[in-house]
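As a warm-up, study this chain.
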Amino acid sequence: MTDPEELEEIPEVIQPISDPVDTARRRHGAAGAILAAGMFGVDIALGRKPKEDAPVVIASSSDPTDIDTDGIRIPLDAATDLIAPPQPPSDPYAPKPRRRRG
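Now compare it with the structure written out below.
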């Protein structure tokens, strides 16, 4: 068995600092770094703050319908309704068509 005194001390993991300018320099060269730095300068000069979206609440006179199973029915006048039947469900795992070269 090993003594606790002989065990190495594990250093703390330091999270890398994300620097978009250095990332742009590595990926796109000097021109990418210049463009990224310029865009950050414009962002700071404009001083824009991210907007906080307010929640939207809409009152409804009835329960919501499931248009995937029921379709859509909109009355236009006393004698006319606009009807859109429900679409058949699509296969989420359908193979993608192969592109032909030629």
